[in-house]
Amino acid sequence: MSQENLPIEHLYFTETNLEQILENLDVVRNRIHPQATNEEGINEQVFPSVCLIGLGRCGSNIALDVASLVYDARTNYMREVESQEILDSESEFRPMRWIRKHLPLEDKDGVKPVFLIEPIVLLGDLDKDIEGRIRFSNQEGRTKFLEEYTKLQIMDLSEVHAGGAGNAPILGQYLAKIILNKDATTFRNENWKQMHSYLVDSCGIKANQSRLYFYIFSAGGGTGSGMASEFGLAQQFSYLSKTFDYRSDQSQMADKRHSFVFEPIFTSGICILPNISGKNVEISEALHINAGRLLTKYISEEWNFSYNEEREDDEVPADVMERIRPWNSMMLISNDIMRYAEEENGGDSDNIDVNTMEKYANQYISQQIFNILTAQAVTTDYDEDYFRRAGIDIAETIRLDANDLFMSLAGPVAVAYAESVVNEGTRQDSVDIDDLFCRSIELPHFNNDTSAIEGVSVLPVESDRYREAIKNYRKSGYDATALNHLHFFKNCSSIVSIISLPRDYKLSFTALNRLKMHLNRLCPNTTLKRYALVIGASANLSLTTLIAKSPCLSDDFLTLMVAYMKRCFARDDYRYTDEIDKAVIKMIQDDDFDDALVDKFFTTYENPAKILDTNWYAIKPMYEKKYRELIDNNQRFVSINDIRLDINNVKNAIKYLREIYRHRISKTNVLTLNG
Q1: What residues contact residue 47 under an 8 Å CB cut-off, 6+ apart?
Q2: Per-residue pLDDT tens for 537-572?
Q3: Which of 85, 228, 438, 578 could join 217 via S-S bond, C-beta 3.0 to 4.6 A?
Q4: What is the pTM of this model?
Q5: Domain total for the chain?
Q6: Which residue range is the domain that position 208 belongs to?
């Protein structure tokens, strides 16, 4: 699809010159593999299969933490000689303890196998000083890490905007739109042109082997919440543009190695939801409105892309291009996790400081990314000697590739996680599989044996009620009827379960069957179940379960979404009453959807002024002037009004919730002619 014929909604710049894209990719490749050139000076190293994109302050900090964990796994804890005092030190930061305990540090031959999945990590923020914030932080060993972890790249976008988005996602989104609509070759910063080619222009071609992209951001802020979905849309747009480009000029190329091939990429947002149920937290807080906007936007786009049957012609590529959504799925991780973990650990969650809260959040997310990476990593992501030295038979590993995730996970996703220590020589039946499964779906808590944070990333219902339900589940001998009536489990459409085993531990057939039985009983209407068995990438037995679609029916999700609708869409008569709350529940549950109800309660467009403590009409022209100055082409101008969410987003979001609320499966009956 040529640049001139792009749908009016999407004016994203995409480099169409393949030679230029390959040239830019070579620059990125040489930057992340600086010593990899052969005698002819050609760098033949492949790109890692995984890329993490941290956006905004929160997102970039977490992505940085994941990179630090991987780096530390290779250095600090893999050395033959290590001070015992450091190992036993209680002051050691929890994620570091977790990673050390998680990795297989011992080997029978005295050689320590190395965990070597190293993702490319891109950090982006609208803060001019992102590089200074990262490079000059006083974290011990940070300078050495930044020098040695060459796969970490900083996206300096300050020439477009040198400040943050002022806690307003619509401004973050508009600034991201300017960055992505502007011709990448006109940026003064050469690095951006090359990073753009890696992230946007080349996804899906053979020269770029990255197939999984994780966007990490805070839903409650302005920069990450606004930028992330725009970056995701630009990538999806570029990828689908190539998919629908049937022109044969590229197929005439003599060298077809780098031509576009239809290889699915899997992209996921990893979305940090703000605290909403603490004793001192008010629902009307701007963080909740920001998060609600993101959730409403995402599920309305997901409805339009996957379910909307009102569209006229599904076969027209332009129609599909107008309905793209930013990611295949969006993982939801609540910041309340950290509060529950502190409470379960005997601490006082009211007095937990912000930095500790953030560190716990970062650890939980790092754990999940770490485990998802192990489940899909291709052998080229490991050191070539890894499997041989670790004594791992690669034939025994069942992994998930991008296509598996692409087909299995869509829409909002929650994570359930737990792990158990299994020592060398542990009998197969000695691990309590029932307990492991139950811990993975409990309220978040610390595992004192492994330093991991276990539990579910978003609670299905309010915490006291869920705690009671889990208690009954345990008391009843794991009878699923104590839990499977909750929409979170009852309406789940697909599950991906990742079981990670130490090298010498064999999970018995009966234990695996019990895990599957628990999943089947807990989620009785699941259409699709995928399992990955990873061997040798962990010193512990761990279970990660990704629960798809139904998390949008959880209390947290619904509360945030409706809080945003009331604040930014509601007509004056209903803004401060509970009529909208009741009406949304009714619209989801009623057999027939009444459009007129939405029109009754809501205005046509969102009003961004409702969450800004300043004059929106004075801000708007300032940002639009910036757009006109940076993109001097009237035909490519986008007004900030054009990116407001409208009443159709509200309707589509409610339709999506209705769809998931009604999810059922029909049991297969055995047919016979032998009456």
Answers
A1: 28, 29, 32, 120, 198, 208, 209, 210
A2: 667 888 889 999 999 999 999 999 999 999 899 998
A3: 228
A4: 0.87
A5: 3
A6: 18-34+46-84+111-247+261-309+316-327
